[in-house]
Amino acid sequence: MAEYSRLASGQTVARGVEAQPAGQTAVVVPFLPDFIEIYNRTRAVAGSGVTRAWWVRDAGQGSAFLDTFGTGEQFIAPVGGTSSGLLVSGTGFSTIQAGLSLQYGPTFLLGGSGGIAKTSAVLLTVTTTADHNLTTGDWVTFQNLYQTSTTGMQQIAGIPFMVTVTGAKTFTIDWVGNGSNLTAITAGGLNTLASFKKILYPVLYAPGVAYPWKIDVGTTTTIHTTAPHNYVVGQQVGFRIPAPYGMTNLNELPNTTLPGFPIYYYVTSVTDSKTFVINVDSTQFTAFTVNNTFLSFPGLKFAEVVAAGDVNTGGWPYNGGDLYPSPRFFNGFTSSTTVGVSTINGPAISGAFSNATFMGFIIGSGVGGTTGDVIYWRAYMHDINYL
Amino acid sequence: MRPRALQPPTIQLGNSGIDPPAQVPQRDIIDAQMAFFGTGCIINEQVILQDQEGVLAWVSERLAVAMRQAEDLILRDYIVSAASTINAGGGSNADNPTNLGVSDFSLVATTLDTNNAYKFMSGIEGMDRFGTGPVRSAYFMLSSTELQSDFDGLTGSGFLSQWNYPTNASALPSEYGSVYNIRILTSSEAPVARGVSANGQDVYYNTVVGKQAVTHINQDGFSMNLIYRDPYYSGMLAQNATLAVKFAQAQAITQDTAIRNLLSTRLASLVI
Questions:
Q1: Cβ–Cβ of A101/B114 closer than 8 Å?
Q2: From CA A286, how far away is CA B122, in angstroms rounded?
Q3: Residues A2-10: what's their mean pLDDT?
Q4: Residue A26, pLDDT score
Q5: CA B134, CA B149: separation in Å to the nearest integer?
Q6: What value, to the nearest 5°, has the Cα angle with vertex A130 and ends A126 and A133?
Q7: Does the pLDDT of residue A80 top 60, yes or no?
Q8: Contact between A131 and A365 (Cβ < 8 Å)
């Protein structure tokens, strides 16, 4: 028939933390491919790593055939598979169809030896008993963070967090980890009930609501959020900070000098996907705190920042690729905190409310090479697939 | 475009004859990107020729329903993403959010009133009819049908069933009742986040809106296009017809202080 098939090709850059093995790299195409092939130019020149990989739908989500320099062909089993012989572990290719919000993965129990450690003033470290199968850039939300019936970390349950994976059974999240009202989740308590769910499609519409966990005061004010905020320079933002969090000075309302009119701020710089700076002198503001007591968690309101408009007139900046680039968002499918995933839509004014629903495929960490690698890809959707 | 308020001139002019400084009128810009959507079906001519059920007719109907559902789901998911939330705390189930208590309705209405949101409905005056009571002027709240048993549980402590309004003239078909300054519409497609409360229960997004909160933007001539292509256009043997729908829409929060997602869990057991 060859009338309804879809063929696409292109190039992308492996995403992740610099000079590290790449995490997940999303490629947006306007169909769900049943065949994917990539060529890693950087690995081929270097003579190391995975130089070529391919996938067919019948092999299963998460699988891949790969050609590793000096080793030859290997196979990554689908998610849930095992490794032996030329089977190797890792994450291969998967297709993605992100169109409906509030979709979650299964409940993942931290397990008997799992827990959450109070690592530092900026980190909590989550340990799981079984492999968590997360990738840096994934978003999760926690449930049942009890150590005892009256202690634990239920104060953070329900907040979306972007994870940074530090091992097969460990990952970190940004939070004031040394808060006195947090009790570490450790073995021997109710830790076996503690769990998280992966948020499958956390950013289908952007910019949206973000959750501050730390605010640096000064002549300008720096906001740290638990997951990507997707704001740009020139974004207009408003705050809703309940009284227990201290810094109610930032709130949109009440406005004592112009009654009834919300107070908005502008984003003056974006440090990374989870940090931005606004144009307000906060040196005299009440300190921001997330050190809420455990027993206050039922009905606890969260501090929020929301997009309220923008003052931009131009489109997204040209970055060497296509002219008039589409918006880019940190949508849970990139391990980078500085380069988001392009939407499937056309160009838009920077900061505009945009639809970021998409479909395409994910190049997993097992075949993605090293951060910054140049990858050529092609993707097919065949007219028919015979089983 | 959202105009900014001008400073009310509360300082007297005096008798100097000098005009006060002029104010600079300012407005905020709210940008939104138009997005196009569509889906369709490929139908082999043999089906059209031999199927006795009028396949083109019922596939057209299904496409139309799918498109209208998509419009609603897109707007629903956008509001879930972009509007502020308030976790219910007035319930008794010791979760976060809690189940809905009447104080949560009061809190949200108070918040929107304080934020100068415009209500959708004026009140319904009381009448001399047994079992009825007056209804306050109100915002609309869109909730899941799964919460209806929880609303019933608030009867006598603030909830008034739509059937107990003095008159049903202004009640919408999907209206379940009211609590204080909020009239509740229920839908099976209202947003629910399964199993993600602090205690692992379902979280319901009860969206409470003022009039000026959100806008839905259509593209001229693109609210809905039903596109039929005869098999003649499908290849040298003209074997396949296509039926498809296409539409365009965008949406934006025009006043973020006039909308809140009241998040709640459920008290009553869910029966499916």
A1: no
A2: 40
A3: 85
A4: 87
A5: 22
A6: 75
A7: no
A8: no
Please name the member of B28, B115, B199 whose beta carbon is closest to the beta carbon of A144.
Answer: B199
What Å distances lie between residue A255 and A250, A251, A261, B7, CA to CA?
10, 9, 6, 12
CB contact under 8 A, B198 and A157: yes
Instruction: Work out whether the CA dihedral B261, B262, B263, B265 comes out positive or negative.
Output: negative
Tallying the residues shown for chain A, one arrives at 387
Q: Token match 């634990």: residue?
A: A152
Helices within B5-147 (DSSP H only): 45-50, 55-82, 102-114
CA distance A345 to A350: 13
Q: Name all domains of chain A by residue range, CATH numbers in brackets.
A: 1-98+358-387 (no CATH), 108-199 (2.40.30.20), 207-310 (2.40.30.180)
Residue tagged 């680039």 (tokens):
A325
Q: Looking at residues B64-80, what average pLDDT do you find?
A: 93
Of B7, B196, B256, the CB nearest to A306: B256
Token reading at A264: 């908005």
Backbone dihedral region for residue B75 (phi beyond 0: left; psi -120 to 50: alpha; all else: beta): alpha
How many residues are listed for chain B in this entry? 272
Beta bridge partners, A266, equal A236
Lowest average pLDDT, out of A27-36, A72-81, A218-227, goes to A72-81
Chain A residue closest to B36 (CA)?
Answer: A345
- Minimal CA–CA distance to A379: which of A5, A3, A9, A4? A9
What's the complex ipTM? 0.91
Query: Does the beta-carbon distance from A302 to B87 stay under 8 Å?
Result: yes
